[in-house]
Amino acid sequence: MDAQTCLSREIKREFPPEPPDIQFEVADVFRAYGDDYRQTHILTPQQHKAMSDIEKCRTTALGGHVDECDHCGHTEISYNSCRNRNCPKCRGSQRAAWVDARELELLPIQYFHIVFTLPHDLIPLARYNPERVYGLLFRRSSSD
Predict the structure, then answer these.
(1) Residue 121: which pLDDT band, with cuts at 50, 70 and 90?
(2) In 11-122, which residue ranges form alpha helices assigned H by DSSP?
(3) In angstroms, rounded to a whole number, what is the distance separating the alpha carbons of residues 80 and 67?
């Protein structure tokens, strides 16, 4: 870390300190209630992994690193992110960059957004076999 990026210059001392805004993150909810939820709901392996990754994101469970300012010696500890594409904390900026890149690939034509609904009884089947169910749905909807 160099003097330009050192955050110690930006720390403002206020007396008395203002109470922090209470904000909850998805990870906080998962850590507090995730075990109970997993006991009462059936999750796909992908859902279980996403939930587990989000619970561990930016905690000691994933390790961390120390940044030290070359100018003043100020140090900061940062914990590693989970990099799960479903994590709202660490993948939001990458998701936005991905959307921007896809927008550059769009053809200069009019697009239509179409929604297909499934009968309620097929939703569990689609959740566990998405490629097969949605592939069949698209093939049938595009046929004459």
Answers:
(1) very high
(2) 26-40, 45-56, 92-104
(3) 13
Residue 64: CA count within 13 A, CB half-sphere: 13
One DSSP character per residue, 51-77 reads HHHHHHTTSGGG-EEEEE-TTT--EEE
Over the Cα atoms of the chain, what is R_g? 23
pTM for the full predicted model: 0.57
- Residue 134: in which H helix or E strand, if any? helix 130-142
- DSSP lists the bridge partners of residue 79 as 64
- Continuous segment of H or E residues that includes residue 127: helix 123-128
Within 13 Å, how many C-alpha atoms sit on residue 68's CB side?
A: 3
